[in-house]
Amino acid sequence: MGLPGETTPPARSAGWAARTESLVMPGSARPFRRWVAVRPLRTVPVERTRAERVFGAAGSRRWLNLTVALLGLIVLMPVMIVIAALIKLTSPGPILYRQVRVGLDRRDGEDDEALSRRRRDLGGRPFVMYKFRTMHHDDSPGSQVWARPDDPRITPLGRVLRKCRLDELPQLWNVLKGDMNIVGPRPEQPEIFADLRNQLDRYHHRQRVLPGITGHAQINLHYDASIDDVRKKLLLDLQYIEQSSAMADLKIMLLTLPVIVTGKGAW
Q: What is the pTM assigned to this prediction?
C-alpha cells in the first residue's frame, strides 16, 4: 500500500524501471503521484571476439600471450640451446643476463597519502627480466645507462643477437611467470624510469598494463638513443593502451616477425 494520494508501484518486468510523476486532479490543489514504467537507456554492445566474451578483454589478451609464449618456448628451444652454446664458447661469463625492470603498477586508486608513506616509489612492481648476454662480462655494477650504436661493451655475437632481437627470447619465461606479456610497453630500469618519469608527462601511465617483449613502439621505431626517442615511443605506447585488444596484440606479434628478419630499428 502506498501513502494516500499515491498509487502502488507496478511490478518491474525485465528491462524496465519505475519512476513517479506528479499530476494535479481537477478541483484539488494537492498533486496526485503515480508510478510510470520507464525503459532504461541501453548502450550499444561492442563487438568482441569469442575469447573476450569468455575471459573478458584483459583476460583474453593474457591467454593469447600465454599461449604464444608457451608455443614459442617449445618451438624455439633448439634455437635457444644453440645460442646458449655459442655465448659460452665465444666469451667468458654467464649465458643469461638478469636485470631488474619496472613492471605493472597495481595501485589503481591508491591515494597520494598512501603513496607518500612508501619509502621508495618505483612506479610499478620490480621484477627480474632475463636476456641472453650480449655484452662482455663485468662484475662491477656500474650505473644504469642505455646501449648505443657501436657500443664497445657488446660482443660480436651479441651484435647479431641484438640485431635480430634474439637476445630477448628468454623473456618468454617472464611471460609465463606473469611478469610480462608478449605485447606491451618495454619495461625500463628503475633509475632510468625515475628520470624519465620526471621529464615526461604521463610516462608512468605506461605501467597500467603488463610490459612486453615487443610492442607498438618497437615495431615502428628504433632503440632509444635520446629523450626525443622516448617521447615518440611514449605516444605510441599510450595509443596502444587506449586501443588494446586481443586482435591488436595478434597484429603486433605478426608485424614483429619482419622486424626480426630484417633487423629494423636495432643496432
A: 0.71
